[in-house]
Structures are given as structure tokens and as C-alpha cells.
Amino acid sequence: AQSIKLEVDSLYQLSQNQKAPLNHPMTVGVIPTVGPYLLPKVLPALRQQYPDFKLTIIEEQSHVLVDMIRKGEIDTAILALPYPHDGLLAFEFFQEDFYWLTRNDAEQSGLDEITSTEIDQSKLMLLKDGHCLKDHALAACKLSNNEQSETLGATSLNTLIQMVAGRMGSTLVPEMALKQINSQSDDLKAIHLNEPGPHRRIAFLSRPNYIGVKNIECLMEVFAEELR
Q1: CA proximity to 28, closest of 68, 65, 56
Q2: Which residue in 61, 89, 178, 212 has a CA-CA distance of 20 to 30 Å to 126?
């Protein structure tokens, strides 16, 4: 029954796509460590260029979104790679590095670059297990999960940022979050992590038989332009 529904939906969308791009409603998933920083940058331009486009956003963790794509519950999702997505197509539109976030009165705050060996791992705070940002940060620093000692159970990047402001330690943040961080606090300093990158790649994922690829390409074009 699910297969039949997907085929019917695909036929309808195909007829819509032949008229004009982004004239069919889309449901797009996004992970919590991308959505709050990407969407404010791109949605105004998307609305201006495609004022009639109906977009529904669902924020979930990566494993949930991948499952929803496979089941046809959403059209596409924005994830950070690398992340397992066997059988799905990936359309990359942005690459970024991590920045080490500390207070601007910390001992190393005067640095322009920092390597993972220069970071005090005992005070490095990352998201709890299950968040791909933690896995990407550990990989960028060439650390195992056991080597990172601060397991405070934070479930959002914003919480970690507030904890850094509260002198509880330091963290790693993606480049796309810097503008928002700088606008929220004058007490923090972001220093580029000088390790081989890019540290994560941002992409749309979709089913191989998804017929709305042209819509994804339109979104990618708008997003990439606004992220330059």
C-alpha cells in the first residue's frame, strides 16, 4: 500500500514539475545543528524568488530523517556528511570547517588558528551521543569518544554555546553558526580549527526514484548563493 501511494504521489508531482520549478509543496527535513543557522540565511531569498512555494520544515536527528526519506514521508532532508545513507542520493551544496569556541578572556583567545593538540580535551564539551555534530567534531580532532571527557548530555548546540559563555569549558561550532554567535555575545571568541577539512559537508538526501530532483536543484542554487 505504501508503494502504491508513493507511485501515485510521484505521478502527481511529475505533472506539477513539468509546469514550473517549486510549484509543488515540499516537506524538507533538517537536522538541529544546521536548521537554526542555515534557514535564516536562505528562507528570505527563497521566499522572494518563489513567493508561491509551499514549504514544510521538519527538524529531527539524522537517523530519523533518513528513515523518513526511505519511507517517503518527506521529500528530502538536509544533513551533514559524512553520515551513512546507503541507497539514497546526496546533493552537496556547502562545505565548512569547525571553529573552537572559547571566552575572549581565555588564555588562547588571541590565536587565529588552533590545532586539536592545543585544545584542552578535558574541558571540551560536545553534544551527547547520537548527534552527528559530535561524531564530526571528534573526527576533525582525531579523537575517539573515550578521549573526550566532558559528557554533560547537552542536546543542542545553543546550550553548549551558553555553557561556554558561563565559563564551563569550550566547544566546537560549525562555520555557519558564527554570525549568529557573534551577534548574540561579545564575550566569545571563535578560532579556526587548523585540521584537514572540510570538517563537514552539507547535502540534500533523497530517494533514487524521487522525481522532484529539479526542485532540489532549485533549492541548492538558492542556498549556495546565500551561503557564499
Answers
A1: 56
A2: 89
